[in-house]
Amino acid sequence: MERSFKKEAEALELGAGRTFRGEGILAVTKALLQSGVSYVGGYQGAPVSHLLDVMVDAEGLLSELGVHVETCTSEASAAAMLGASINYPLRGAVTWKSVVGTNVAADALSNLASPGVTGGALIIIGEDYGEGASIIQERSYAFAMKCSMWLLDPRPDLPTIVRIVEQGFELSEASNTPVMLELRIRACHVTGEFPAKDNRRGVYSGRNPIPGPPRHEYIRLSHPPSTFIHEKQKVEQRLPAAQAFIRQNGLNEVFPGDIGEIGIVTLGGLYNGVIRALSRLGLADLFGNSRIPIYVLNVAYPLLPDEAKRFCAGKRAVLVVEEGNPEYVEQQLNTELRRADIQTRVLGKGCLPRAGEYNSEALIGGLSAFVAESRPGGVDVDTIVAHAAAILAQRTGALAALGDIPARPPNFCTGCPERPVFSAIKLAQRELGPTHISADIGCHSFATLPPFSLGNSILGYGMSLASAAAVGPNFARRPIAVMGDGGFWHNGLVSGVASSLFNQGDGVLIVMQNGYTSATGQQYLPTSRTSRTGAPTGMSIEATLRSFGVKWLRTVRTYGVATMVKTLKEAMRSAERGLKVIIADGECMLARQRRIRAEEAEKLKRGERVVRTRYGVDDEICTGDHSCIRLSGCPSLTVKPSPDPLRTDPVASVIESCVGCGLCGEVAHAAVLCPSFYRADIVRNPGWRDRLLHRLRSAVIGWLGGRAEAHP
Ligand code: SF4
Ligand code: SF4
After folding, report:
1. What is the C-alpha to C-alpha distance for residues 501 and 499, in angstroms, rounded to an integer?
2. Three-state SS at 42
């Protein structure tokens, strides 16, 4: 990881009497240490990558506490780590992005949830749902229900988040059940403070190992006939134990209000949005005092029937605020109320949208519809409805006033080593014709957008080659699968490469070897230059592929566009059947820039020579057809007005953010475009050779310039 979290790691050392200030996800990290965890692991992904990144940088503190940290190669391995808590009183926590990560972890989760746990097991999931999400729009709720695991969804407020993490471990132990804690993007990044407590060592840890022989009890294996007993235990023992703990320890919250004939039942994570919407409608003050009573489910699953009935009894109507489809809480609440013959009307979907994130507008619209539908006494319903309509109309008015705002789709960074590969595919396809391209998860998926628009399917992380398995035999040309080195180690090696070799597949696989899981913030991989300890990992994609039996294997530097085009053509045209793998090698430019900028700053401080390469376009030569832009897609390559009054087309121009990767020049060369690109080396702290060369060059240019003037 090229970015340092040393400062955040220091905050983890705070003890009793100090105040912790920071982001929600960091508060969770601190709460884990206050809870006495013995091990932590996970797989990176927004919005929870930070948790593991900080843990890795806090290695000194963790070793002092005896906490083992594992940077897992997938969510499945992270989930399987929790197996340590099945037999032993070890508290552990793992983290990943959900719902995709939970899908990957599903097998281990089922096998964990079946026997249950002895030590508290917490799964911290980044619930990437709604605006800004980068994955499939599903929720983790279904997983919790089907496995009988408890799902915590704390109110986004730091003291509440910390309390729920700490009580989450107790809940897990009291009910022998693993517990999931979901954090939406906004909860991860909410800032605040809470009174810190001293960090605790786990009952057992690396510093105080478990004595005695390993525990062998058949009932703790997820194997029949134990599984039949587990199923009964889940319903007859663990669920009632969990409900009793939640009730006795007040994990859920009720906020009273003077309009008692109606109420709101909200998932904890949505509370801040609800209270803000109420405040905008004049139904709450700025300090969070609501006029409508609110029942906050910091535990999204299981529902506590008695608590829920107590809140609803005597009310004419309640609104359930629960994002996404289906409406799990609304259905359960309806069932419980009808069973108890409580005639409170349950509203939810209908007032609120059936799908999509409950942002401010959705909540204002939903609350207004609820008030209009339930018409409580003591409020001017028509004024509230009109006020909501006026707020919602503001957006339409603002959009109309702004006019057409260009979309800003995500794109490769300037100088990204993956971009040249797609330039090469485009150039190769001019000759070969288009073929099916199986895309994958990672930065390279940006190539599915203009200007490349390359990619016909995405089936999951590391799944590109596997998803081309049935395309190849049914398609006129060999399909090309693209995956990153992150995807390769996550799933691609076994699900894709081994399967293709085993089934004698005949496709082309490009592995982007950029050295990190870049899209999630540059975490280390098994084939990063070094591991998190700074030592070489000793692993290689090339050696791994050869050991698996891949015969056709080439490693090509990504910026060598002409070589990449040639290699692609060879792979597509080869008479040799079988999997053909091209390792596209080039370090992630974002990570590289972070690394070399720090190194160069040090050199400059010491007065040493530093060279920065930039590319430029000669205005006089540029024809203005912009093929270079369409083929490279670099955001540093743009247009500007032509300086020639006789040419109206804008010319290409390289702006200050250019990192000198050389792709535009390479593309111009490989595609035989106009020769307008030039390269310049900007030398800081020049030596005597640089100065001499500069004087010589200036003299020659001056002489040539003079000749040009003499012979116009
Ligand atoms: S983070 Fe790295 S790999 Fe991803 S787009 Fe940026 S330079 Fe490319
Ligand atoms: S050299 Fe060209 S492609 Fe590379 S960063 Fe600069 S403008 Fe972009």
Report:
1. 5
2. strand
Contacts of 654 (CB under 8 A, 6+ apart): 614, 615, 616, 617, 636, 637, 638, 664
Cis peptide before 451 (omega within 30 of 0): yes
Mean pLDDT of 356-382: 96
Give yes or no for residue 86 CB within 6 A of ligand 1.
no
- pLDDT, residue 403, reads 87
CB 392 within 8 A of CB 535: no
- Can you say whether the dihedral through the CA atoms of 694, 697, 701, 702 is positive or negative? positive
Report in angstroms the alpha-carbon separations of 219 from 42, 84, 209, 230, 235.
27, 15, 24, 8, 16
Q: How far apart are CA 328 and CA 705, in angstroms?
A: 78
- How many C-beta atoms surround the C-beta of residue 342 within 10 A? 16
Give the tokens for residue 630: 């369409």
| Contact residues for 222 (Cβ-Cβ < 8 A; gap 6+) | 110, 111, 112, 114, 115, 230
Q: What does the alpha-carbon distance between residue 42 and residue 49 come to, in Å, rounded to a whole number?
A: 9
Residue 258, amino acid: D
Ligand 2 atom having least distance to the Cα of 632: 3
Average pLDDT score, the chain: 94
Rounded distance from Cα 443 to ligand 1 centre (Å): 6
Take residue 84 and report the two structure tokens written for it: 């340590």
- Ligand 2 nearest-atom number relative to CA 414: 5
Q: Element (H or E) spanning 60, and its range?
A: helix 59-65
Q: If pLDDT is split at 50, 70 and 90, which confidence band does 672 have?
A: confident
CA atoms within 13 A on the CB side of 374: 29
Residue ranges around ligand 2 (CB below 6 Å): 414-415, 615, 632, 634, 636-637, 654, 658-664
| Nearest CA-CA partner of 497 in 514, 479, 511 | 511
CA distance 421 to 632: 10
CB atoms within 10 A of CB 542: 17
β-strand pairing of 68-71 with 262-267: unpaired
Structure tokens, 677:
């690109």
CB neighbours of 37 closer than 8 A, spacing ≥ 6?
67, 91, 92, 93, 202
pLDDT of residue 710: 54
pLDDT recorded at residue 707: 63
Nearest to 82 by CA among 68, 61, 103, 100: 68
pLDDT reading at 17 higher than 90: yes
Q: Is 541 helix (H, G, I), strand (E, B) or coil?
A: helix
Please provide the size of the chain in residues.
Answer: 712
Residue 712: pLDDT over 60 = no
